[in-house]
Amino acid sequence: MGVDVDAVNIENVVIEADNQINTSKKGYITVTGVHGIMESQRSEYVKSAHKNAWVVVPDGMPLVYIGRIRGHKNMRRCFGPDLMYALLEHSVKNRYTHFFYGGKDGVAQLLKQKLEQKIPGLQVIGTYTPPFRPLNDQEKNELIETVSQLKPHFIWVGMSTPKQELFMIEYLPLLDTNIMVGVGAAFDYHTDQLKRAPKWMQTLALEWLFRLIMEPKRLWRRYLVNNPLFLVKLIFQVTGLRKYESCHETRIF
User: Fold this and answer.
1) CB 147: neighbour CB atoms within 10 A?
2) Taking the model in full, what pTM does it have?
């Protein structure tokens, strides 16, 4: 649907992150599921955020199933919290540094404490809890100055979609970092404020149903409107009734 999801798995992304940092390149990762695809249908700016991403990883099983049907047998789900933990754990031996941006009041600092306990040697050198609005000029300059002093290898962005994608495309050129990753609710998962769905629901691509049951008021529109629309648009694309222009060449690491 105009968003090229890369045929990757978590292990691929971890290896490529090393290459990205070793060559001093900058880029951001969008962790994208059905919700992100559908937001891209409503906004060209959101679609451009995916287009300009270094990697677009498949966050939901529906995208993985589509990729496997197309022949990408090694493609696996890159669930935001799992991708985050894998990269954090891997980063210790290379002494990569991290900055947490997002979450409700106190969540980023709590995340730092919990993950430093779970992953000995982890270096989280800064956190920032933004207001629930775009940063004003003073806040923007303060963030840029703080990151300029710390120079973290990774900035983890814990915001909702599409806010985090729009934040990354705007701020990557302004912040002194190598990689930004939009991981959505990962901050809440790793601070035990959200529960994971049972394994069987994850395998059957029913994690959306578990989240809907847990947070019906906030998520009903996302899942009960977006999911059927996604299926309709997918059928139109597969049958050739609707053509979509590719954003970039799908990468297979």
Assistant:
1) 20
2) 0.90
